[in-house]
């Protein structure tokens, strides 16, 4: 006859049983047999009160940390109009008009150049990079459909069309890694699946030699940061470059709402302001691993 297997005891059940037994023994030692029930109830109330106090303390600490993080990101209050204005008697007298110097060429007055644009591209996060690339294509006359973000994109982030031509674009914001041949082959598969003849991979460091050779034979262009910077300088003025290459704050890749910098026991990261309804995050200066994923 087979032996009956004993049911494994739940750790929580063991803990609760031990705690109840300890309280009963303590109550019996304090009040004896005649005063056991009042002593037992009193000990239970004391333990419940201590547990509630500990839980309340943990909540208060978390709220304080969250307020500090929000305060760090709040803009400094601006003074009301006219607070720092000088009285009329203190205003400096208008200086005599000077002959206007010869106006420099508009190109020489630009605040942006190729080097600053390349640096700004590298300082974007991956989601900002995926938003700057379609803005560039639209400025160049394309109609753009975005398919990237936090959801699976099937190897295609952007579908750009201009007239009869359609271009598939994959964005790889890798600060240290070059595009490998595997990524180019995946792009070719996406082109075949969508019936598109041309593809492009927008990245920062370009591609490896095998990737470039395969791309040349497959009508795929690997566009590095230097070429993207030159195209951006040609398509945007300084104000548009500020908007697309130096955006204010981070946006959630899941819902596109503003994000706040969260700190704590782990590495800092940008979290969605709609948390916990949205759990989108962007790692702050996350190191690139040996297997690039984006």
Describe the protein.
The protein has 294 residues and is α/β, with parallel strands linked by helices. Helix content is 42%, strand content 13%. It contains eight helices and eight strands; from the N terminus they run H-H-H-H-E-E-E-H-E-H-E-H-H-E-E-E. The protein has helices at residues 11-31, 36-73, 114-123, 126-139, 181-194, 209-216, 225-235, 238-245, and strands at residues 143-146, 158-162, 165-172, 198-203, 220-223, 259-262, 269-272, 281-283. The strands form two sheets. Strands 1-2-3-4-5 form a five-stranded mixed sheet, with helices on both faces. Helix 1 (11-31) packs across helix 2, helix 3 crosses helix 7 and helix 5 (181-194) packs parallel to helix 6. The longest helix is centred in the first third of the chain and has 38 residues, at 36-73. It is elongated. The model is unreliable at 75-93 and 286-291 (pLDDT under 50).
């Amino acid at each position: 006859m087979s032996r009956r297997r004993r049911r494994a005891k739940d750790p929580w059940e063991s803990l609760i049983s031990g705690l109840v037994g300890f309280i009963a023994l303590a109550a019996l030692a304090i009040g004896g047999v005649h005063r056991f029930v009042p002593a037992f109830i009193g000990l239970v109330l004391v333990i419940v009160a201590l547990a509630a106090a500990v839980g309340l303390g943990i909540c208060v600490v978390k709220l304080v940390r969250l307020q500090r993080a929000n305060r760090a990101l709040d803009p400094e209050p601006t003074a009301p109009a006219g607070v720092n204005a000088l009285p009329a008697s203190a205003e400096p007298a208008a200086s005599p008009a000077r002959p206007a110097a010869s106006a420099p060429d508009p190109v020489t007055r630009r605040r942006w150049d190729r080097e600053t644009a390349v640096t700004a591209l590298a300082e974007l996060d991956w989601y900002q990079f995926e938003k700057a690339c379609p803005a560039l294509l639209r400025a160049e006359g394309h109609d753009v459909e975005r398919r990237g973000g936090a959801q699976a994109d099937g190897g295609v982030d952007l579908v750009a069309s201009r007239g009869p031509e359609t271009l598939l674009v994959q964005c790889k914001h890798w600060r240290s890694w070059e595009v490998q041949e595997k990524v180019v082959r995946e792009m070719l598969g996406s082109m075949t699946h969508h019936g598109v003849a041309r593809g492009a991979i927008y990245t920062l460091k370009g591609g490896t030699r095998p990737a470039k050779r395969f791309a040349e034979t497959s009508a795929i262009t690997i566009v590095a940061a230097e070429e993207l910077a030159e195209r951006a300088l040609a398509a945007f003025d300084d104000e548009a470059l500020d908007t697309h290459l130096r955006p204010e704050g981070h946006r959630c890749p899941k819902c596109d709402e503003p994000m706040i910098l969260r700190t704590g026991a782990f590495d800092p990261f940008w979290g969605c302001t709609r948390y916990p309804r949205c759990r989108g995050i962007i790692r702050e200066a996350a190191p690139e691993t040996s297997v690039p994923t984006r």
